[in-house]
Design a protein that fits this description.
Elements (H helix, E strand, L loop, with lengths): L1 H4 L6 E3 L2 H11 L3 H9 L3 E4 L9 E7 L5 E9 L2 E9 L2 H8 L3
Parallel strand pairs: 1-5
Antiparallel strand pairs: 2-3, 3-4, 4-5
Length: 100
């Protein structure tokens, strides 16, 4: 599944300590939940806001437990680096649940 959404199959995730703490303290999202999104057929979109500095992507998906999350991430060689993770808002959930 990852192969279809990424230009190459990543080997692993790269975690920044500050982002791990921020994602947990602000949104109670764990690393494991972030990783589950990429296995559970996410919808991935380019994040145009940051495209001039670093190519960022946004993934909408569900964890194994059914939690709907929005993940902002970038690629670092063969790694996915999660920048932020939080629960989906109403608009994001609607976009995730549409077929296209």
């Amino acid at each position: 599944m990852i192969k279809r959404i990424l230009p190459h199959k990543p080997v692993s995730f790269e975690w920044d300590k500050g982002n791990i703490i921020k994602n947990w303290e602000k949104h109670e999202v764990s690393n494991d939940e972030c990783e589950q999104i990429f296995v559970n057929t996410p919808k991935v979109f380019a994040d145009a806001k940051y495209s001039d500095r670093e190519k960022r992507m946004t993934a909408y998906g569900k964890t194994d437990g059914g939690r709907c999350l929005t993940i902002v991430f970038t690629y670092r060689q063969l790694f996915i680096r999660v920048i932020s993770a939080r629960d989906q808002n109403k608009k994001e959930k609607a976009k995730y649940e549409t077929k296209n």
